[in-house]
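Assemble and predict.
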Amino acid sequence: MEQALLDLRARLAEVSDLSRAAGVLGWDQRVTMPPRGTEARAEQLSTLGRIAHERFTDAEVGRLLDRAEPLVESQPYDSDDRSLVRVTRRDWEKARRVPTELRAEMTLQAARGHHAWVEARRTSDFASFLPYLRTNVELKRRYVECFEWSDSPYTPLLDDYEPGMLTTEVQEVFAVLRPALTELVAAAPEVDASFLHGDFPAEEQRAFAERVVRTMGFDDDAWRLDPTAHPFCTSFSNRDVRLTTRYRPDDLESVWSTMHEAGHGLYAHGIADALLRSPLHGAPSLGINESQSRTWENLVGRSRPFWEHWYAPLQEHFPALRGVELDTFVRAINRAEPGLIRVDADETTYSLHIILRFELEQELVAGTVALEDLPEIWNARMKEFLGIDVPDNAHGVLQDVHWSGGGIGYFPTYALGNVISLQIWDAVRGALPDLDDQLEGGDLLPLSEWLRDNLYALGRKLTPKETIERLTGSPVIDPAPYLAYLGDKVAALAT
Amino acid sequence: MEQALLDLRARLAEVSDLSRAAGVLGWDQRVTMPPRGTEARAEQLSTLGRIAHERFTDAEVGRLLDRAEPLVESQPYDSDDRSLVRVTRRDWEKARRVPTELRAEMTLQAARGHHAWVEARRTSDFASFLPYLRTNVELKRRYVECFEWSDSPYTPLLDDYEPGMLTTEVQEVFAVLRPALTELVAAAPEVDASFLHGDFPAEEQRAFAERVVRTMGFDDDAWRLDPTAHPFCTSFSNRDVRLTTRYRPDDLESVWSTMHEAGHGLYAHGIADALLRSPLHGAPSLGINESQSRTWENLVGRSRPFWEHWYAPLQEHFPALRGVELDTFVRAINRAEPGLIRVDADETTYSLHIILRFELEQELVAGTVALEDLPEIWNARMKEFLGIDVPDNAHGVLQDVHWSGGGIGYFPTYALGNVISLQIWDAVRGALPDLDDQLEGGDLLPLSEWLRDNLYALGRKLTPKETIERLTGSPVIDPAPYLAYLGDKVAALAT
């Protein structure tokens, strides 16, 4: 390989190592760290983030890119090297705009904000969280100032998670979704799901969840599953994937929570070896990544074919379900019913929770709401969107982790993930005509391998729109398949 | 504070953060990481080690030291700032001698060697480990060449763990120990300890171990205890202490293994806040640190006063012991009996295992043995020192983790720790005349707090010899109290 490419790869590998090391510290913080380790951990994460940023934004990277670009221009657009140089150039130009000290401050305050939020949510005390939120929002405004934007000051934040996406594009998708979803929610019949609440021992939940994950296509000894307060997935290579979940002793949500995180995990696990330790080691966007967690959680994990195979094993683990028919179970796990908590929301109401947050976030960034009014505004909109009364802030504005760590601009990617998951699912259906039979037989590998070979292996080589175009033939984010899917679901509930 | 000191502290804090981050990665690797994460983890650790070394050995640190030294020279010798500047100068001069690339290569090969050793020990296959050992020994020889030494090429390696100690000084201590210990082992009567082997459920062992640790003087929420294959202790601040232990279902060794690691943990926990994120954040040497793990494991954990309180709780957890008298139990846990495995060795035979390794290591470094002959030499000396036949390499030359990671020069610190523990224990006895009563009452706090205030809080402010002098009145490492203690122990076995 030419020297400039070798040097570029070595520099990028170092930055990647620092970021993955920070990932290990973050996993540890959320899964194993003693609570009093918080302050030191915040300093450590701040230092790692600052050094990684310094090394990546160094002028030397620009010089290496200048020398590497002519070496790759004759290669195919999606070759490893040409993709590396193109994506690194884009990331580097963007990262150079943010001063190292601002980035370090954001990392430090994110850790502090997270710590404060844990306690504030526990006591439902928004006032104690307010100063941390204020600090994080102010840092985000300073961050926005580092960029030019045409449509909305929210766009630079969105771009961190959904590269190339404009706020107005999201608004257009959500403008279609909101009325359609409201109509679907109103049309959905009440469904008895009382048997999904009961006595479900955590140890049995863990055993069942691990049993399912083992069939999803992971290599042995390349993943683990741990309990945590707020489930997430992270990875430190494509062979060290960390799933987390939450076992509540009175429901079975861990089944879908685990399949959700395992969907993220399969993405990380499927990235081609040649892309490791580089900016291509990842997914094109959070929306694309989320489309896959949603695929495994919902399109697989709530489908009748899947449960044709898995319902008997589930009943083995949980005798209380032995008197419940498969039809009744499948209907219950597909019900549509407004609720308080985003992470507990069903597929039909879920995106309404997101649209509420998306609107609030734009106002936060624009400064058109006072932060102390947030709980009141939140509660009023929950009433308007979902007809729900919020009893306290722990079940309202404090329910989500994201804002505590400065993660503004992140929420819309969840709803985009829902939409994209159906666009890709249509492609999967075309490629795997026997999919339902395979799911009924408990064989998840054809699906897992197709997604790995056609999507996960690509890493960040292509932009989100290029990725969607490669799989679906069009770069447009189209809510029609998602709404059709939900329409069928709600119709089936009424039969 | 003067600017040069502030700048120096900021730079040192950054280096400390990188080292602690590497510590988190190391803990994760040994406690939680999926096996296939190994290769990526080695790269990450190599990168962190290299950057920390680069930042610490930078010429700028020397300039900051030059400017800081005049600012602190009028302060007391052991003030925080003067100690910081003095110790940093010494560390910096030493670290500057080692090229960054050599250090990175050592880190990388240590991780690979560790991985190979795990498999080699499992299969008792020395040949498969040999190339990794050879690489690590050769790297150590290159490392030694970075230093001047007067007595032995082993001294620069020893100095990493026991700063300021000469190989000849260790030889002198061991020359007294070896014949005295051989004599004691020969004089020790056989003691029935058969009841210490049996059915001891791991979950009960964990419960008992945690119960003891909770009385040792840790703040709540500042430590955790996890199972691992090869117990160790690490910490990422004085409020994030990680103990590990091993529960074997057929013996109770986890009791003392856990108290041993908790002794290290108390040291880390007791370091003064003002010394965090600096080179003073640590113990003066591994020997001094080990003196405290040995204090808690042996001087406390095998003493009759301790078990006057704890034997009844132990019997609650393990009904099989209910028919065993306290006297019989205490005698069994203090028996002297040659065995194959260092980490299972009793107090009387333990240091003989170390002296064997110390002699071999000097020969490895000098190149006076062929590496492929190591198993044979090991086995012959085990016969000579302890009268034991070694059945296979897993129970012989492959038993210890240290050489796999390039940790040559480390072993003697264990025996020095034994010796020093008794020197400090004499000081403890003088300061706490009611210690036995306190132990009998289950009150470990007076001991824990005295050691914290008089030793642990000092961190690395003083050299090992200065530290010993401060506690005992003399800087000399004196084996007499240790031999007297063992003499009393062996005599008590015969009564």
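The CA atoms of residues 364 and 370 of chain B lie 8 Å apart.
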